[in-house]
Amino acid sequence: MAEATAQILFVDDEPQRLRAFSRDLESWGSLGDMNIGLLPSGEECLEYLEQHHHEVLVVATDLRMSGMQGTELLHHIHELYPDIGLLLITAYSDIEAIQSAVAASISGFILKPWEPEQLAKQVETTLDLVQSRRTTKRYIRELEQHVQAAAEFQQKVLHPEPQANARLELGVLSQAAREPYCTGDYYDTIHLSASQSLLIIGDVSGHGIKAAFVTGMIKVLSSKNIDALRNIGNDGRFSVTAFLTKLNRDIFHEMPSYSDVVISMSVALLDFETATMTVANAGHLPVMLLYTEGCRRILPVGAAMGFHKNTEYTEHTTHIGSGDRVVMFTDGLTEVAGNLSPIPDKHLTEILESCHMSHNHTPTTEQDFCAAVARRVEEFAVLHGADPESVFRDDVTVLSALLR
User: Who contacts 379 (Cβ-Cβ below 8 Å, separation ≥6)?
Assistant: First the structure.
């Protein structure tokens, strides 16, 4: 049997029916260059498919044959080569066999005795279905490849590994809601000078390509505004409120087509000369300051960005010292599966304090600290009814900074 780029196989142990099938389809004349293959048994069909299954679009088989029966052959093909369209040739009386064939996801029936026109129409319908299904799968594979490439680009360019300095140890955990999707979370760490470092965390509603695209725009706008605001104050201190105000105005003007997207952000300026941390917030979760005596929750008032161009932001300044740990996170950490979501502030504070004390007692990297926080949150969610395999329902980012 000659090979072709696309084939229809007919399986029957009666030679005259094989000839009739080939004759009736070829006389129809609308199958183009499709090759019609004739095989006398289910066993030979499976052997042929081992080498040529990529070329075969449809297999039609008679129900009753010596050796392997038609329904058994269909089940084997469906399990091994699910992209191939399947047709069962049978009589009205074979109800039980027809039910078994349905379980093999057959595309249709050919009833004996068939009319040539009905035979050709059923084969053409199955060919259209198979080709459409294969085109859809190919498109999905290509789309997944594009998403994977976008996710890798975002991880390398938009989510770089935070760089520690002489005053800070930094760590981050950032993961998309569903791999390999891109994340709508945004974070950055910028060392403005030897004595000032800026920590930023943000969240774009939704996830996937659109959210990732918005985070990319925020990255560009943030970098531009940080450069513009460096040392602009009389005292040489970077202004977190001026940064959020200007960034909000840029988002309002530059991203009008994304009015349905909610963008939140929290910014913390660490000043080591004055031993202070100044926080400004735009509709985001609090910054948590962990120290020996406990935990402080810092949440200045501020609206999410992009809705009003003249939104004003407030800031809060608190003292910091060596051994303190600053923790920032997105709502994916707290809005978990289970029957206690979002995690109450009291329980989240207990988790953070416990991890802080544990990692101070047995020093590890800040990366390990962030992973430990996520792990403890998972344990909490499972304890309250969450499926261990699907605790986090949204993008999750945890950013931590340990002051030296």
Answer: none
- Is the bond leading into 342 cis (omega within 30 degrees of zero)? yes
Task: Report how far residue 76's alpha carbon sits from residue 106's, in angstroms, rounded to the nearest whole number.
Answer: 12
117 Cβ partners below 8 Å, 6+ apart?
A: 28
Cα–Cα distance measured from residue 184 to residue 397, given in angstroms and rounded to the nearest whole number: 10
Cα distances (Å, whole numbers) of residue 189 to 166, 256, 270 = 14, 27, 11
Ordered strands of the 263-271 beta sheet: 185-191, 196-204, 263-271, 276-282, 315-319
User: What domains can you pick out in the chain, each with its CATH number?
Assistant: 7-141 (3.40.50.2300), 159-403 (3.60.40.10)
pTM, whole model, 2 decimals? 0.68
Nearest to 193 by CA among 305, 270, 128: 270
DSSP state at residue 165: -
The SS3 assignment for 4 reads coil
What are 288-322's pLDDT values in tens digits? 999 988 899 999 999 999 888 899 999 999 999 99
